[in-house]
Amino acid sequence: MGESNGLLNESEDLENLVSTEDELEAERKNITLWRSPLKTFYYFGWQTFDELCKGFKFAKLHKLNIAVTAGVTLAILLFLNIPGAQQKYVVWLNKEIWWSVWWVGLGILSTVGLGTGLHTFILYLGPHIAQVTMAAWECKSVEFPEPPYPDVVICPPEGTSLMHVDMWVIMSKVRWESLMWGIGTAIGELPPYFMARAARLSGNEMDDSSYTDLQRVKDPSTLKWGDRFKRWIQNFVQSAGFIGILICASVPNPLFDLAGITCGYMLIPFLTFFPAVLLGKSVFKVHLQMVCVVILFTADNLKLFGEKISHLPLIGPALHGPFTEYMEQQRITLHGSSANHIQHSPTVISIVFNVFVGLMLLFFLVSIIHGTAQQKFRTLNKSRYYKLSMEESE
Predict the structure, then answer these.
(1) Is the peptide bond before 148 cis (omega within 30 degrees of 0)?
(2) Which helix (H) or strand (E) holds 338?
(3) For 147, which of 189, 224, 292, 387 is 20 to 30 Å away at the CA?
(4) What does DSSP assign to residue 315?
(5) pLDDT, tens digit, for every residue of 19-66?
(6) From residue 154, how far is each of 140, 144, 149, 296 by CA, in Å?
């Protein structure tokens, strides 16, 4: 009788613990600007202040290294800006090195946000590939004058020999920046991998709720289809290793952060994880995206698209006008010159796209605030949940 009562009490204690943890997790998810703005800013400010304090402590402990780094940086900046024979190399650095760094940085921003990164393919790389594609078909060449390319795309001067333009020629024109962007996306997948790996090696639980929530579910049939897919990704990369990681990284996959967390927590070696991610994202996935954009923005497909939208009921004429205006403005711009580049008034499509970019940047900022505030709440309540569990066990 006593043993049965003891087992019953243990079962009730376990249910209370799970209930308490679920309540804390539900409270964490409610820390958003829409539901609890004051609490969100409170935790965000607290976490930001803590990170600044950590930064000052780090700087105090590494004063010599920081001083040497600052001195070297200052010397390089002076060297780059002082007139002299080195300026021809400076021009090359600005053109090649910084162009590559720019795209690598955009790639990192695209994936470093743990599922809420800045979608830089939609905002930057995709439009760049589309612009080059439209220009190539209109100009019958990809030998755009430099400068102003890549800042501004215009056709070569009249009399320049034309060339055969096809999908492969266009892809070769944008391959380098696409490759750099892909490398950046692979680098951006490293933080969740190393965070999960460090948590496993230190014997701590993962902070990522998307991982821990799935691990707590014992019956996969009770999961929603989205969570089932997440669970499948976890099992697939864990069992298939390099090939599984490569396949998941080679297609547009917003849940790949979960794969990186799984690989880190399961202690999959770095030399297995990163080469697969690098190959998948910077080669296979990037070329798949390039092919899609180039095919979509060919001259024939744009003409077909313009004809199709004009036949849409109710909104067709309203959309066809701005689309035709935008395409005509692009054609005029392409046949201008770098010396007298005309500044046109913005079209409806360009205004809509700029608003879209602004909203995406705003969403990225809000996601950072939410993630930072929720992380601070989760960190503070780790000790709270631990104390509750100890009290229940007593």
Answers:
(1) yes
(2) none
(3) 292
(4) T
(5) 566 677 777 778 888 888 898 899 889 888 988 998 888 888 888 888
(6) 12, 6, 8, 21
